[in-house]
Every structure is written in C-alpha cells, then in structure tokens.
Amino acid sequence: MLSSKLISRSPFMRSASTHAPRGLASILQKNPDDVVITFAKRTAMGRAKKGQLKDTRLTSCYLALFKATLEKTKLDPTKIDDICVGTCHPPSPLYVSRAAALAAGIPHYVPISTVNRLCSSGLMAIRNIAHAIQAGETSIGLALGAESMTTHARPTPEICTKVDEHTEAHDCIQPMGWTSEEVAKTYKVSRKTQDKYALISHTRASEAQAKGIFADEIIPVELNGAVVSVDDTIRPGVTAETLAALKPAFPKWEPASTTAGNASGVGDGAAICIMTTRERAEKEGMEIIGKWVGSAVTGVEPKHMGISPVVAIPKVLEQVGLTKEDIDVYEINEAFASQFAYCVEKLGIPIEKINPNGGAIAVSHPLGMTGVRQVVTGLAELKRRNGTLLCTSMCVGSGMGAAGIFVNEARSTSKL
C-alpha cells in the first residue's frame, strides 16, 4: 500500500477537484447532482486608460452586470446562496463587490467572497462555487471575474531582503514582460514566430467582431449614461507588416522580442456565470448551457511562468480521463505570444481548435475577468459549432498555471 506521503505528492492528486467524473462516457452522463451553468455572459471590454470603461469604477461595472443578469434571467435574488468574485488588484475587493451586490438588490443575507490567483482568479471563482455546490453547502451561486486595469494597475510587489535573496522568490515578483522574454530566450521563440501567432489572434478577433459573433456572449450594460455592448479593444487592420514594424516593449531584457502587438492588451471588464445543480436547474426551469467537470492548478519555475498551460492542461485531462483529442475547443490565454506559441507547439494541439475567435492579444486581458471570460467565450463557440468539450487554461503570474474542463449543453439551431 502506498504511504500517505507518496499519495499526497502525486501530481494528479494535489489540487484535484472533488467528485470529478472520469472518462468521456462518464463526463457526458447527465446526473441530478451535476454542477451546471445556466447563464454565462460578459460585458464588452474597454482599453485601459483609453477605452469606453476608463471612467468607470469597478463597483459600477459590478452593479451594472449584477442588474443586467438578474433582469435577463429573472433569477429571484433571494434564491442565491453564495457569490464568489475573482479579481486581482483593487483595494478592499470584498467590500466593494459586496456593496455592489447589495446595491443591485441582492439581499444582505447572501454572502460573498473574493479570490485572487492572479490571471486565473475568474476560473478560481467558478471552481470555488462548483466545489461549494458539490459539497452540498450551496445550491445556486454566482461566479464573477472582473478587473479595472485603468483604476487598479498591477502594484509593485515589495518583499524583504531575506526573501529577495532566494533566486526563485526574486524571480516570482518580477514584471511579466521579463518572464515573456525569458520564455522567448530559453525556448528559442523568435520574434517572427511571436508575430505569426499574434496575427492569427488579431485576424480572428477582427473577423469575429465584424460578423457579430461576440454579441452571443456579451450582455449589454448601461454605464455612464450609455449602453456598452461592443469591445473597443480589438484593432482591425493589423497586418504582418504593422506587427513587424513595432518596437520592443521591454528593450532592456533580451531578446527584446515582446511588443505591444504580440502581447495581451490591458483592459477593463467583467463576466459572470450562474451555477447550480442539474436537479435544481430543472426544478426552477433554468436553461442549462454547460456542465462543470473539473479543474487543475499547478506551479512552474517563476521565470518561465508562461509555459504553465503545458503542465496544467495534461494534468486536468489525466485527472478526468480525457485525451487532448477529446476536446473540441481550447481557450488558452494569450498573455504573451512568446508563451502562447511555445504552449501551442509543445502541446501539439491544432491551432484551429485554439482561440477560434482570437484571444487576449487581440481582445485584451483584464486579469480577474479572463478566467470567466474564457468560459463564456468557449461555451458560446461550442454552441455555434455544436461541439461538446471545452478546455480552458492560463498561465498565472508568479509561476503557476490553471486549467478547467466544461461540457456544452446548449445546441445551436443554426444551419450555417
């Protein structure tokens, strides 16, 4: 018999989701205690400090999203058991998110929490609500991801000298641009390769916006006297030539290949999922659009933070008994083209399956929002193509990574 120490050290036991089904047949079964998603939408995003949300406080964004969601779904707010918000940098995040929930008409007896695991914070909010439902502690919960990078930019981490003397401790608080250049240098990801993947993202997002595809996942909200319903972060007309002409964003770090065109945009926005059990959803007459399967979290060497999806994705797939070929759509966060290119090629996943409507390089990366936004985006795309499985993943600042698996239960009636 394996010792408890050996079991605890297994990479597939640590950070495991509880009660996760294993194998495709098991995952696709419909059981009364399944954790399901009945609503998944996001606000339109705005360019940080320049876009449509630059004058909007995060509390206003929360309030507008709560109110729009309750109005759209007709969910009785007295039936909500818990709320979890993924967000990274605002001061007193619990106070401001709870204040916004109360102002939106959610009763004072509905509790709320916030979670910060940097770029995966939104996915962790979904995970926390899912685990609470699986444990029988929550029946209906809201998971949000939100960030205003205009009003709350990344603060400079401060550590004591004794901690800073440790190499990995020092590395884990360095600017993310430095980690991008470290990945490019260590794994020999050229500027040309980075620009190639960036162009794919920009092109796909521009085409998706022109076709109105993002309207399927955006819930219009009223902010500052205007209805916000279209992303202003996407830059049409990006070409290989315009990308090649951009100067390095971080010239002091070799190989200085990261630019404003091949790194994620800095943005503002919020996203939300309503989650419950299948039994409760059916009882309440709620439309089921997706099913939570499980998640995995991992750590990597901090200076190579960006490569973590190559660890997190295989980990979550093994955990739930799937292969990479089983997945129909991958939403992998494009923090930087350096790490994204490496992950795509290392994982060996066809680019046609990954970020089919572009990713963060084109649409931006409001940190706390991204983990929920990618689920919203992925489920909407699965519905369009009548696909079944979504895998979402992202690298996480300080040297971590996360991934999650979801089942689509919303079928498109379109003949396109």
UniProtKB/TrEMBL annotation:
Pfam families the record matches: Thiolase_C (PF02803), Thiolase_N (PF00108)
Family: Belongs to the thiolase-like superfamily. Thiolase family.
Domain Thiolase C-terminal stretches: 288-406
GO BP annotations, alphabetical order: fatty acid beta-oxidation; phenylacetate catabolic process
PROSITE patterns in the cross-refs: THIOLASE_1
SUPFAM superfamilies assigned to the protein according to its UniProt record, in alphabetical order: Thiolase-like
Gene3D superfamilies per record: 3.40.47.10
Pathway(s) it belongs to: Lipid metabolism; fatty acid metabolism
Signal peptide start and end residues: none
Keywords: Acyltransferase, Transferase
Start and end residues of each Thiolase N-terminal domain: 35-278
GO molecular function, one term: acetyl-CoA C-acyltransferase activity
Catalytic activity, reaction form: an acyl-CoA + acetyl-CoA = a 3-oxoacyl-CoA + CoA
Active site residues per record: C119, H365, C395
Entry's Gene Ontology cellular component terms: peroxisome
Domain of life where this protein originates: Eukaryota
Protein name as it appears in the record: Thiolase, N-terminal domain-containing protein
